[in-house]
Design brief:
The complex is a heterodimer of chains A (1086) and B (297). With 1086 residues, chain A is of the alpha/beta class. Chain A has six domains: 1-114, no CATH class; 125-188, no CATH class; 192-346, no CATH class; 447-654, no CATH class; 816-856, no CATH class; 860-1085, Rossmann fold (3-Layer(aba) Sandwich). In chain A, the strands form five sheets. Chain A has a nine-stranded mixed beta sheet with strand order 8-9-10-16-15-14-17-18-19, sandwiched between helices. The longest helix of chain A is centred in the first third of the chain and has 37 residues, at 61-97. Chain B is elongated, with a radius of gyration of 21 Å. Chain B has helices at residues 33-43, 57-72, 101-105, 121-128, 142-147, 192-195, 208-219, 223-237, 250-261, 266-278, 282-295; strands at 47-50, 90-94, 106-111, 114-119, 131-135, 157-160, 165-168, 174-179, 199-202. In chain B, α7 (208-219) packs across α9 (250-261), α8 runs antiparallel to α11 and α10 (266-278) runs antiparallel to α11 (282-295). In chain B, the strands form three sheets. In chain B, strands 2-5-8-1-9 form a five-stranded parallel beta sheet, with helices on both faces. Chain B has a two-stranded antiparallel sheet with strand order 3-4. Chain B has 297 residues and is of the alpha/beta class. Classes of the chains: A alpha/beta (1086), B alpha/beta (297). Chain A binds chain B through residues 356-361, 363-367, 369, 417, 421, 501-507, 732-733, 825-827, 847, 849, 852, 855, and chain B through 97, 100, 102, 107-108, 110, 228, 231, 235-236, 238-239, 242-243, 267, 283-284, 286-288, 290-297.
């Protein structure tokens, strides 16, 4: 075809195209020139015709035509003319729907077709078409799809794209913006994922879109990063699991996905496959449980070994099979059963479980009031201890928070026992009672001589040592060496004493020593002095047979032998701490002259020394000395202390003696010594090798030693406070108090810090308790004015008098005469006469002619538990129109603002409220109880959420009735929600400590139990009622009579269930509460 | 240990005031309590024995009755068995909360057409001049404590209201009461008017060496086991008021020793005789068991 031919064809089409747009014409022209070499004339005409048809198709389809022309050259090159027709046909079809769609199709084609085969072309088009729903927004989404296609298909297979489109498609139903966003980020999200993962990732996305669409965006954005936590071979599985969950449950699938992924991140990724297999086992029963399982794995692994996870899992599996809720709670670690199983599987021993036992154990050994604390608390105090090794500071023993050395609980407990026995031995065998002047039992006294010798060489004005320990260490040039030697000798002495005094622990002790010996560093290669010390440490651990010594220094062997002899002497049972000091002196003299040089000899040079070879060596003579070190050439090294022995922990005799002295001083027990000045203290601390202040804090020495002194003082103050107000730090058992935050100095005025108690909560769905679920905080009610009490009594004068009389009648006669007994104190004359008459009349008389006095005691203890929830704030008149807290359940701020508003309003005009009637009733009850002499406690409860159940003490069981109580009643006011269960449990535990024949728990409430999180959701009431019921049943099991009184006139509905076979009463008329409450109480105890 | 008697006589029965110990009980004085008691007996001063359970109060009074009886009354009453009776009669009354005055003094009983008076143990002791030992006297009712007042001052008489009689105490009569200050509640304290009629001897747990000797003798075990038991006793007593209401008594230690003597392993013997006997609290039990397992292999 000649060029004129072309021109003719061109101009013919150009004329026809011109009406649409000039841009179209130029597009055509440009394209035509590019395609003409590829096409025959007919084909060219056909091609142009196609474009023209397209432009004519609808009123904006000329735009598509433009794209058609533009894409043509590249497409033709890729597909050839045969395929080209099919390709353009698709475009034409799309233009039927929307010209924009068609345009986008043409536009994307060159880029896309390089990744999508011609055969799959229809599929691609279909995907785009699928997104188009005939609306403007759907069109733009479809356009976006086509526009993004080149990029998308560069990485995705068509199958992947299909899932992606389905995902985006289902998002469209919810939000086009969301769909568009997801589609736009999809390429960059999906690119990093490998093929299989990508498919699985998309399948989960699809499942998510249909159920939890709101999370779709978060999933796309964060999903890949989360997925990266999982071992690469297991990602598909994990995604499959997540998809199962989304399909079955729908709810919160992404949340579970994210949390489980994070949890698995904390676990060795080699385990992922195993764990996922376990999780998959659970899926048929509950997909939620499977995810909960994964989520809990890190926490479970903290407590049990990997091998035990299977057992934990199978226990849960059985539980899940029996009860879905129960099993899910199990895997969520919110069930008492689960806790039990974990505890039994775990070989770890926690200090807070055994602390009480160890405390009593140490108390038994030492006879002192020894406290047991976690070693971290000692390091935190900043008074010289930095490691978390076992230690003691003279009054308390510090132990690591957990022990998990062995695969067996008993053995791990044994470790604790060895630790605490050694620390207790310091106290029992008087390490810290070292007295410089006192004589030892096995060594003659060298100290005094030495001190004189040193004093002679010193100028005057030397500071007096603060402690005997300091005075002793002052004898040495190399203080660190002396301290190390003293520690070795003293520990050896104590270990020997322990083994002597406590044969039963010997085996465990030896075992620990063996373990320690195995973990000692190699002696070979140590500088000479350190090697010698290391050998001594081994001797102290009973490792005499493992000694090593270089042949090149063989002339020093006698010296080593002498040192070992000193050690042996100090291990005699009669040796005292003063002997340990003497031994230190002797060892120091032997050893200090040895240069700390590294032997240049090879390793073979180190020889084992045994008892025999030691004995064969010549005796140490005076010849040992100056001439010796000439032969020991080598690099002189700075001296380093030996590696500490784990079970012996940190030993700081100087510091402990100082603390002991400071304590005594504070208690005014030590008049002979002048009080310590901070300067003295600082000087001592700087000298001592036990505190390296820089270890504790950064900064300059001056500042840090100040801090240290402050800490020291704080510590002493804290201990004093602890003495005045003994509180238990260890949450040993349910129902026992755990003291809260430590009081800083400036808050010393505060009377009592709140006490915390933990209680389980009953989950009726799981059929199990949630362990340590609720925290009850016990407060004392503030004090108001005492007049309130008397005013109330005046107001109810007649009722008060009446109840009082009734209660007086209740009081039993202390000694009631019981007649007609077979045996007794005296004859009953009437009975004797009768007896004689009957006998004379020939009847067989009854021999019951005695009487005796029988002691009858009224022995009643009662705890009144008042509902102080916000609902008691309601005016009685408006009682019908009840407010429920449900509406504020998920928004505490709204709730509080409502509450504040109420309070403000009520200050203006105080109407009579339920709480007022409750208070008045309490006044009358107290009056009655005081008459009759029953033991009673009055408590209020409220709170918000499970962590904060408030328990107010108005009058404690042991407390006497006083003005304080009167004042507190005045201050009783509505507070927050009503979580009854824990309050009942706490009151029960209070009653349980009282030994009375009749024990009553009297609950006064104004409605059903409700609280934030007291149920599956805010409308659920079953859960709270079941928990309350269970709490009441627990009380009953403990031999306490629970009784519920409510002023809620609709109370019958739930009380029937809550108090099944437990006494209850409904007082429909609130105003009659004062008279009803006393009557009911009387009936209850009659 | 059950002794099976071969003869027809399967048991022996004594009138309460006639019962005397025929063998010297084993007693190791801790301090000067023997001299004190001797002096009190001579001077007719009633004695209050104070101390925790199992600290040897009863054994002490038996020992004293035996010792005091021997030089004073040389009764050579030969019984069928041929035993030589020696010692002072010892009337022991265990007091309980229903013990009334008539339980001590005596009461009328119906007999045929008439009534018959029988003396109570206190009356009998007064009449024969025995040592009357009221064990755990605070447990008894208040009216009984008043009853003993005239016997415990210069009067040394026992009025018997129902008979309209007054019995003068015989020379050898001495009233001894015991009392454990540890576990009595404030309600059950001795009245001062009663308290101040007695001289008091305090009993504590003996020191380790002495206790070891006692255990060794009573349980017939080796000195070393006895020492370990005494050591255990000392350690466990440290726990008093820290989980334990009372320390472990020497009696319990002896029981443990006896079990060991019969071949029970020491740990087990201590568990059953000491740990479980002392407390029901699991934690405290566990702590004591740990002490036991530290001391005994």
């Amino acid at each position: 075809m000649s060029s004129s031919d072309y021109r003719r064809v061109y101009s013919k089409f150009e004329k026809q195209l011109a009406p649409f747009s000039t841009a179209l014409v130029s597009e055509f022209r440009r394209s035509a020139e590019a395609v003409s070499p590829l096409l025959s004339r007919e084909e060219l005409v056909q091609w142009a015709e196609e474009g023209l048809e397209l432009a004519r198709q609808s009123w904006r389809s000329w735009e598509a035509a433009g794209e058609y022309f533009r894409a043509s050259p590249q497409v033709l090159e890729m597909l050839g003319f045969a395929g080209f027709g099919r390709w353009s046909q698709h475009g034409r079809d799309l233009a039927e729907l929307s010209s924009a769609l068609s345009a986008a199709y043409f536009r994307a084609s060159p880029g896309t077709l390089s990744n999508v085969s011609f055969a799959r072309l229809p599929d691609w088009v279909d995907l785009g078409r699928q997104l188009y729903k005939g609306t403007w927004r759907s069109a733009s989404l479809a356009v976006q799809f086509f526009d993004g296609s080149p990029n998308l298909f560069a990485n995705l297979s068509l199958e992947d794209a299909r899932v992606l489109v389905r995902f985006v498609d289902s998002l469209c139903d919810r939000s086009y913006d969301l769909a568009a966003h997801c589609l736009s980020i999809a390429p960059q999200v999906l690119t990093p994922l490998s093929g299989e993962d990508r498919a699985a990732f998309l399948r989960f996305a699809e499942a998510l879109a249909s159920t939890g669409w709101a999370d779709a965006r978060a999933y796309l954005e964060k999903g890949p990063a989360l997925l990266a936590h999982i071992h690469s071979s297991q990602r598909v599985r994990f995604l499959g699991l997540a998809r199962d969950l989304a399909r079955r449950e729908g709810r919160q699938a992404f949340g579970y996905f994210a949390e489980a992924a994070r949890a698995l991140n904390q676990v060795d990724d080699e385990l992922h496959g195993y764990l996922l297999a376990q999780a998959e086992d659970l899926v048929p029963l509950s997909a939620v449980a499977a995810m909960e399982f994964l989520k809990s794995v890190p926490r479970v692994l903290e407590r049990v070994r990997v091998e035990e996870v299977g057992n934990w899992h199978s226990e849960g599996f059985q539980l899940l099979d029996a009860s879905l809720e129960g099993g899910e709670a199990y895997f969520r670690l919110e069930s008492a059963r689960g806790e039990e199983v974990l505890e039994s599987l775990s070989s770890r021993v926690d200090l807070n479980r055994v602390g009480e036992i160890l405390r009593m154990y140490c108390k038994a050994l030492t006879g002192d009031d020894v406290a047991i604390h976690s070693a971290e608390t000692l390091a935190e105090k900043g008074i010289g201890w930095v490691d978390e090794a076992p230690s003691t500071e003279g009054t308390a023993i510090f132990l690591p928070p957990t022990v998990e050395q062995y695969h067996d609980k008993t053995e791990n407990f044994g470790v604790y026992k060895v630790y605490s026995t050694h620390q207790a031995a310091h106290l029992e065998f008087g390490t810290f009672l070292f007295n410089f002047e006192r004589e030892g039992h096995v060594f003659p006294n060298l100290r005094r001589e030495r001190e004189k010798g040193r004093a002679a060489g010193k100028e005057d004005g030397q500071r007096e040592p603060l402690t005997d320990m300091e005075r002793f260490f002052d004898l040495f040039e190399n203080r660190r060496l002396a301290a190390d030697l003293f520690a070795i000798v003293e520990d050896a002495r104590l270990d020997a004493l322990v083994e002597h005094e406590y044969p039963g622990i010997r085996a465990a002790y030896r075992r620990t020593q063996r373990v320690e010996l195995e973990s000692r560093p190699e002696v070979e290669g140590m500088p000479l002095l350190q090697a010698l010390i290391e050998n001594l440490v081994r001797v102290s651990l009973g490792g005499e047979d493992g000694l090593r010594w270089p042949a090149s220094a063989v002339q020093l062997v006698p010296l080593l032998r002498d040192a070992i002899d000193v050690m042996k002497t100090v291990r005699q049972p009669q040796a005292t701490v003063e002997d340990a000091a003497e031994a230190t002196l002797r060892l120091y003299d032997l050893i200090a002259q040895i240069p700390n040089v590294v032997s240049e000899m090879a390793e073979e040079d180190w020889q084992a020394l045994d008892e025999e070879s030691l004995q064969l060596m010549p005796m140490t003579g005076d010849s040992l000395g100056k001439d010796m070190d000439l032969q020991l050439q080598g690099q002189e090294m700075p001296y380093q202390s030996p590696q500490p022995v784990d079970f012996r922990g940190e030993f700081k005799p100087e510091l402990v003696q100082l603390l002991m002295r400071l304590r005594q001083e504070r208690q005014g027990q030590q008049p002979p010594l002048s009080p310590l000045s901070p300067e003295q203290l600082r000087a001592m601390l700087e000298k001592s090798v036990e505190v390296s202040i820089n270890d504790m804090v950064d900064g300059d020495l001056q500042q840090s030693s100040e801090l240290f002194l402050t800490n020291l003082m704080k510590e002493l103050t804290a201990q004093e406070q602890e003495k005045q107000q003994p509180v238990q730090r260890m949450p040993a058992k349910e129902g026992e108090p755990v003291s809260g935050f430590s009081t800083p100095d400036d808050e010393r005025e505060l009377p009592v810090e709140p006490k915390y108690f933990y209680y389980d909560e009953w989950d009726f769905r799981a059929g199990d308790y949630k362990p340590r679920w609720c925290r009850v905080v016990e407060y004392s009610v503030g004090e108001g004015v005492p007049q309130y009490f008397d005013q109330t009594l005046q107001k109810y004068a007649s009722l008060a008098g009446q109840t009082r009389r009734q209660f007086e009648m209740l009081r039993p006669e202390l000694f009631r005469k019981i007649k007609r007994l077979l045996d007794g104190e005296e004859f009953d004359l009437d009975a004797v006469v009768e007896f004689l008459v009957e006998r004379d009349a020939g009847q067989s008389p009854s021999g019951k002619v005695y009487w005796r006095r029988n002691k009858v005691e009224r022995d009643v203890a009662v705890a009144f538990l008042l509902d102080m929830s916000a609902s008691t704030d309601e005016e009685i008149a408006k009682h019908e129109r009840r407010y429920t807290q449900d509406e504020f359940d998920d928004d505490p701020r709204r709730y509080f603002s409502w509450w504040m508003a109420r309070r403000a309003q009520e200050l203006l005009s105080p109407p009579k409220r339920i709480i007022d009637v409750e208070k008045e009733s309490i006044v009358l009850v107290i009056r009655a109880l005081e008459t009759i002499g029953d033991t009673y406690g009055i408590y209020g409860f409220s709170g918000y959420g499970r962590e904060n159940v408030e328990f107010y003490v108005i009058k404690d069981m042991d407390e006497r009735f006083s003005d304080h109580v009167k004042k507190r009643i005045d201050k009783v006011a509505p507070v927050r929600s009503t979580r009854m269960g824990p309050a009942i449990r706490h009151a029960t535990s209070k009653l349980d400590t009282h030994d009375a024949k009749v024990r009553i728990l009297f609950l006064v409430s104004d409605g059903r139990p409700q609280d934030h999180g007291y149920g599956r959701d805010r409308t659920e009431k079953e859960y709270a009622i079941h928990d309350t019921h269970m709490a009441l049943v627990e009380a009953k099991r403990k031999g306490i009579v629970p009784f519920c009184l409510t002023v809620d006139r609709y109370g019958h509905d739930y009380l029937k269930q809550m108090c099944a076979d437990i006494g209850y009463a409904v007082v429909p008329d609130v105003e009659s509460l004062p008279s009803r409450i006393t009557t009911l109480y009387r009936r209850l105890t009659e | 240990m059950i002794e099976v008697q071969e003869s027809d006589e399967t048991y022996r029965q004594y009138a309460i005031e006639e019962y005397v110990l025929s063998q010297e009980p084993f007693y190791l004085p801790v301090t000067d309590e023997v001299e004190l008691f001797n002096a009190a007996y001579e001077q007719k001063i009633p004695v209050l024995l104070k101390g925790p359970t199992g600290s040897g109060k009863t054994r002490f009074i038996e020992y004293m009755a035996f010792k005091l009886g021997r030089p004073l009354t040389i009764i050579k009453d030969v019984t069928e068995g041929g035993d030589v009776k020696t010692g002072l009669p010892l009337v022991t009354v265990a007091c309980h909360e229903d013990l009334t005055a008539s339980d001590l003094v005596g009461r009328y009983l119906l007999e045929g057409e008439s009534t018959r008076w029988i003396d109570g143990p206190l009356t009998r002791a007064v009449k024969v001049g025995a040592i009357c030992y009221l064990d755990e006297v605070v447990e008894a009712r208040k009216d009984t404590t008043v009853l003993i007042h005239p016997l415990t001052d210069h009067r040394r008489i026992l009025p018997i209201e129902k008979l309209g009689q007054i019995v003068e105490a015989r020379n050898g009569f001495l009233l001894v009461i015991s009392y454990n200050p540890g576990y009595q509640s404030a309600l059950k304290d001795l009245k001062h008017s009663t308290r101040q009629r007695f001289m008091a001897i305090e009993f504590g747990y003996p020191p380790r060496e002495l206790e070891a000797k006692i255990i060794q003798h009573e349980a017939d075990i080796s000195a070393s086991v006895a020492t370990e038991l005494a050591k255990l006793g000392e350690k466990v007593r440290h726990l008093k008021e820290h989980g334990l209401a009372e320390g472990v008594s020497t009696r319990l230690l002896i029981y443990a020793g006896r079990l060991i003597q019969k071949g029970i392993t020491p740990r087990r013997a201590c568990q059953v005789a000491i740990v479980w006997a002392l407390t029901d609290d699991r934690d405290v039990q566990r702590s004591i068991e740990e002490v036991v397992s530290s001391i005994f292999e």
